[in-house]
Design a protein that fits this description.
The chain is an alpha/beta fold and about 400 residues long. About 40% of the residues lie in helices and about 15% in strands. The protein has helices at about 15-20, 40-55, 70-85, 100-110, 130-135, 160-170, 190, 230, 240-255, 255-280, 305-315, 325-330, 335-340, 345, 360-380, and strands at about 5, 65-70, 90-95, 115-120, 140-145, 170-175, 195-200, 210-215, 280-285, 295-300, 315-320, 350-355. The strands form 3 sheets. The chain has a 7-stranded mixed sheet with strand order 2-8-7-6-5-3-4, sandwiched between helices. It has a 3-stranded antiparallel sheet with strand order 9-10-12. It has a two-stranded parallel ribbon with strand order 1-11. Strand 3 (about 90-95), helix 4 (about 100-110) and strand 4 (about 115-120) form a beta-alpha-beta unit. Helix 1 (about 15-20) runs antiparallel to helix 9 (about 240-255), helix 2 (about 40-55) packs parallel to helix 9 and helix 11 (about 305-315) packs across helix 15. The longest helix has 22 residues, at about 255-280. The protein is globular. The two termini are about 35 Å apart. The structure holds pyridoxal-5'-phosphate.
Length: about 400
């Protein structure tokens, strides 16, 4: 049976060159990067080289990049660290209603701790409204957190326009850039970003490594306490092999970003054309003029996405409903809800996320299988479905 992995927004395969770069750090270069001796210094060299590569790739200085255990920790740190360090300015936070759970749940927790959070709405393509931001931001706002690319529908936010407003009000601008890194160019200075969260395993690096970019001068508390690692900003022994792998993955992504984007555009367009032609009553979600090419979210009217995921899995095809976290817990996608979709539409939505290695034959197989399974499910479905104009 053919195996097709179309869940690259959940995680990606480790690149072979990345694994090669990591290997010595598991075996011979095993020192603690915080030790004073040669073993430690060799590890430090690996970590600092990765830091240089990553900093360069986002237009930052090396001393503005701090390694974490992933995107989730970076998001937790950015929000909590800035909220508490700037309490004398105010206790107001702004984010959007379509953020990753690591942002939304941190905001919910901060609300319990006495902060006020505004969740900006989005339009039916997943774009945050700039006029809503203008309306809600105030002098007491300390941090505005908006993701660059949504992980469920792929919509790209107007980061530059948002940052200009945030700057004007003197707040700190945090961007969850996990789905943007390696997919589109991000320059923290051009875009006016103060804090940027990134993660290795979404770009063919290892799991368990990420980073928070912190612009020089930003007031932020420590999140992980204990130890003077990471320029005394993040306690804990550095995951040296993973960090080295993160650097390598970043280097490889930068080297062929344009090539990969072109390939991803071709394969996703091929998929969209084919599925629109062959499967009736579907909706392609997200902002088609302003989205990344590796994520395609499709609503199949009248079906249960959870069933379809299982049926496709039995045919060797890996996809998900919404995000990995949302589907694991059978929660309904907060992203699609925020985009104004009905419960039925939300339940019928599947995310296909592509990789450069995805072939036309893979797509042919997936669309053929979808045709069969969707037709079967619709026949069995007691719910009548009607295509909605959107
Ligand atoms: C995957 C993801 C995260 C979490 O990153 P981890 O490294 O898995 O903790 C955060 N934000 C977005 C948008 C993501 O897609």
């Amino acid at each position: 049976m053919r195996k097709v992995y179309l869940d690259n927004a959940a995680t990606t395969v480790l690149n072979g060159e990345v694994l090669q770069a990591m290997m010595p750090y598991f075996t011979s270069i095993y020192g603690n990067s915080h030790s004073q001796h040669t073993f430690g210094r060799d590890a430090v060299n690996g970590v600092d080289n990765a830091r240089d590569i990553i900093a360069k790739s986002i237009g930052a200085s090396s001393n503005e990049v701090f390694f974490t255990c992933g995107g989730t920790e970076a998001n937790n740190w950015a929000l909590r660290g800035v909220a508490y360090a700037n309490i004398s300015k105010g206790k107001h936070i702004i984010t959007s209603s379509i953020e990753h759970h690591s942002v939304l749940d941190t905001c919910k927790q901060l609300e319990k701790e006495g902060f006020t959070v505004t969740y900006l709405p989005v339009d039916n393509s997943g774009l945050v409204s700039i006029s809503d931001l203008l309306h809600e931001i105030k002098p007491e706002t300390t941090i505005v957190s908006i993701m660059a690319v949504n992980n469920e529908v792929g919509t790209i936010q107007n980061i530059k326009a948002i940052s200009e407003i945030v700057k004007f009000y003197g707040a700190c601008f945090h961007v969850d850039g996990v789905q943007a890194l390696g997919v589109m160019p991000i320059n923290v200075n051009d875009l006016g970003i103060d804090l940027l969260s990134i993660s290795a395993h979404k770009i063919h690096g290892p799991k368990g490594a990420g980073a928070l970019y912190i612009r020089k001068g930003v007031k932020i508390d420590k999140f992980m306490i204990g130890g003077e690692q990471e320029m005394n900003r993040r306690g804990g022994t550095v995951n040296v092999p993973a960090v080295v792998g993160f650097g390598k993955a970043c280097e490889l992504n930068n080297r062929d970003m344009a090539f990969r984007d072109k390939k991803l555009f071709e394969i996703s367009q091929y998929f969209i054309k084919k599925i629109e032609y062959e499967v009736p009553d579907i909706i392609i979600n997200g902002n088609q003029n302003q989205k990344v090419n590796n994520i395609v979210s499709v609503t199949f009217l009248g079906i249960e996405g959870e069933y379809l995921v299982t049926l496709l899995d039995m045919k060797g095809i890996a996809v998900s409903t919404g995000s990995a976290c949302a589907s694991g817990s059978f929660q309904k996608s907060h992203v699609l809800k925020a985009m104004g979709r009905t419960d039925q539409e939300v339940r019928g939505t599947i995310r296909f996320s592509f990789d450069v290695s995805t072939t036309k034959e893979d797509v042919d197989y997936v669309v053929r299988t979808l045709c069969e399974e969707v037709e079967k499910l619709r026949k069995d479905s007691p719910v009548k479905y009607k295509k909605k104009d959107s």
